[in-house]
Amino acid sequence: MRTRALVTAATLTALAAGGLATPLATAAPADAEPTQLRDDFNGDGYGDVAVGVPAADGKAGAVVVTYGSASGISPSRSVRITQDTAGIPGVAEPGDQFGENVTSGDVNHDGYADLIVGAPYEEVAGKPDGSLTVVWGGARGLTGGGVALAAPTGEDRNFGQGAAFSDLDGDGTAQLQVVSGRHFWWYPETTPRGDGSDTPLGLEDDFLPDDVQLDGVAAGRFAGGSHSDFVLHGKRGNGGAYLATFRGGAGDIGYHHDVLSDGGTEVRSVATGDIDNDGRTDLVTGEPAAGQVGGSVTVRWGAPDGLGTGPKPVGYDQNSPGVPGTGESGDSFGADVSVRDVTGDGYADLAVGVPDEVVRGSRAGSVVLLKGSADGLSAIGAQTFHQETTGVPGIGEEGDRFGSGVHLSDVNGNGRADLFAGADSEDIGTVRDAGALWVLRGTSSGLTIRDITSFNGTDVGFTGNTGLRFGQVFDH
């Protein structure tokens, strides 16, 4: 068994603690469809990026999609979607929080990725709380309307709290998975109609603790086979974390399961990918309130018998050798995490949001990038970016929360992921907490500030930007 370690520039040797790592090769994620299908809504071969804006329109919510191209992304190539958009089911109402979470996948199996949007606080008379909307992709992008799904049981709450799209039974066709506050559901491989006739399946209730409140779901080929397993994460009644993995396969989906964490530090962010390129998906979780060191991330390794059966999990913070910065209480290291190959070397890299990091005297926030290698995450070429980094637009100010959201995606088709970094409390002029995002290009040596792009809600058509918090939620 290979030792996975954090490789430092000084020694280039494996440390006894094990290694921080990140996912996937330049081809396809080990836990999903090929990248061009998973997030390419218009089928042009370039990855597209969805930004959830749940605070838009009095918290009715919206999603902004920026389309990729050979030159990257631009606000001029974007579309804003709400429940008042033509063809989108429902009515935009205060409190819905449409866009509280977003993901993507080819739900109707037509070769175009579809946008999957959660609105877990939507309330419709006669229906359970919450909804999940699928917006159909196509040659003209997200213009084909969509369907809205509701919980199949009347007592359910917060349906659409999280979603994933993966092949649970290993037959080569992926399925839609949804969580509510207390349940996990998966849909058949047929195209959902949204007319109440769709009948998802669910876990047996006694698999989950009575007091658990689920926050989301992540899927991956953690055992390296043809099917995906899935991870449910949330918190117990006392605030402690709940994290469990459930096995997929051709039999009884979810019957075999292992609890990975019960009562530990709350998990705020989750990402998946094949960190050491061994053909098995690994799980990365962010625990920004962990201990007195300002937060941490944890890597749990894929193994032939699934998560929790291989090497022990490894935790990292800013006091770990080679990780940029110094761990200080309140930094929120791990508030968001994202994994993909930035350099194109076949090893995925890890972006970590540190939105309360002190930068030149102000809690302005930063993003840390750690690079993957055969032995784990490497400190060689590790990078950190913030608004005081030379060439990055803006000025780091108290409470900006740069790094509140992070997302890695190859939007220009060069085989290297680009970094989307959000600052959800950035002020735009006198407009408080409007939020903004920055896009840094991926290169063979890492992220670069050359040709950096930055924009905010005004650039994509929002007019009431106070408290908008643009850049808070990305497709995961």
Blueprint (SSEs and pairs):
Elements: H1 35-38, E1 49-53, H2 56-59, E2 62-66, E3 78-81, E4 101-105, E5 114-119, E6 131-135, E7 146-149, E8 162-166, E9 175-179, E10 184-186, E11 201-202, E12 213-220, E13 229-235, E14 241-246, E15 257-262, E16 269-273, E17 282-287, E18 296-300, E19 314-316, E20 336-340, E21 349-354, E22 358-359, E23 362-363, E24 366-373, E25 376-385, E26 402-409, E27 418-423, E28 436-443, E29 446-456, E30 473-474
Antiparallel strand pairs: 1-2, 1-30, 2-3, 4-5, 5-6, 6-7, 8-9, 9-10, 10-11, 12-13, 13-14, 14-15, 16-17, 17-18, 18-19, 20-21, 21-24, 22-23, 24-25, 26-27, 27-28, 28-29
Description:
The protein has helices at 35-38, 56-59, and strands at 49-53, 62-66, 78-81, 101-105, 114-119, 131-135, 146-149, 162-166, 175-179, 184-186, 201-202, 213-220, 229-235, 241-246, 257-262, 269-273, 282-287, 296-300, 314-316, 336-340, 349-354, 358-359, 362-363, 366-373, 376-385, 402-409, 418-423, 436-443, 446-456, 473-474. Helix content is 2%, strand content 34%. A hairpin with a 2-residue loop joins strand 24 and strand 25. The radius of gyration is 20 Å and the shape is globular. The longest helix has 4 residues, at 35-38. The strands form 8 sheets. The chain has a 4-stranded antiparallel beta sheet with strand order 3-2-1-30. A 4-stranded antiparallel beta sheet has the order 4-5-6-7, with no helix packed on it. It has 2 helices and 30 strands. The protein is an all-beta fold and 476 residues long.
